[in-house]
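Table S2 (text version). Query chain:
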Amino acid sequence: MGVGYSPKLPLLYDGTDGYYKLNKTIGEVARQNIKMVVLTCPGERMMDPEFGVGARNYLFNTEMVVHTSLRGKIMEQVKKYVPFVRIVDISLFDLQDEPGESAPTNSLGLQISYTIPSVGFDDTLAITFRS
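Corresponding structure-token output:
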């Protein structure tokens, strides 16, 4: 049986790790936890209605004020729920602005650069939202 920190989501059967496939590095755990914080809407997580950013809800709002609000919400939530991670940068962009992209009218790209100072790990998580 494999050794790991947490189950990998979505849950997948894996005979090597035991019953479920596991996150085996702190980097994998951080990436998954940040992704869950960003994608979960407040109120979706049982027993903790304040968990989550609900980034998909920002899809149709392109004003800078809304983007600033989304950045602040991500920073706040990561600090609370993934405290071992330090956010370095959050970039939001309309995918239609990217060269060569033929994205739908309502699309949003999100890049979160972060570090785990205690282990010297740096990574960037990219998420794309499309209507």
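Notes on Table S2: The helical segments are 26-39, 64-81. The radius of gyration is 16 Å.
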